[in-house]
Amino acid sequence: MRIAYLDCASGVSGDMMLGALLDAGVDLPAVQRGIDSLGLPSCRLAHTEVKKQGFRALQLTVEHEPEHTHRHLHHIVAMIEGSTLTDRQRELALRIFHRLAGAEAKVHGSTIEKVHFHEVGAIDSIADIVGSAIAWDLLNVDAIVCSPVPTGTGFVEIAHGRCAIPAPATGELLRGVPLAASDVQGELTTPTGAAIVATIVDDFGPL
After folding, report:
1. Dihedral over alpha carbons 18, 20, 23, 27 (to 10 degrees)
2. What is the pLDDT of residue 180?
3. What is the pTM of this model?
4. Are 100 and 169 in contact, with CB atoms under 8 Å apart?
């Protein structure tokens, strides 16, 4: 039985998730082909090996042309349904976005159909989520287990202004997820990372 363990000592975000999956051996060109089929303008996954606190890591960045678009869920669903993703990849990507939309709608007092995706509707967030869905399918594990998740502390600037950490949508997505104590100043877990974890993880606990 192949088990993937997410050791989220420093939190989790979409780019951290996808970078870790690529570092675990997922084929980058295969993920890039799936991203290309979404029709996003000049969206390229770039990675470099870096050192963090003396240890090597793979850092992923999403390179793309500047844009000023606020998308609704139906825009993103249309992209995914019109892509070349496999059925399993498409289904996982859509589940993550629907969970994210549900959290955003709840904290804003709106509906899934009407809620605006601001940061999470940007090209880099779409690439992180869809890329992670592709990568998890290609990794082909039987189960996913995750450590308790730290959120960080302090405040973060989002499209709606200054918010306490965890941001409202992140807090909503982490309902039922065990949290790790952390006094680190800054946003360790983003809505994108929280949505992926809340959707894919089978169990939470120690390694």
Report:
1. -30
2. 97
3. 0.94
4. yes
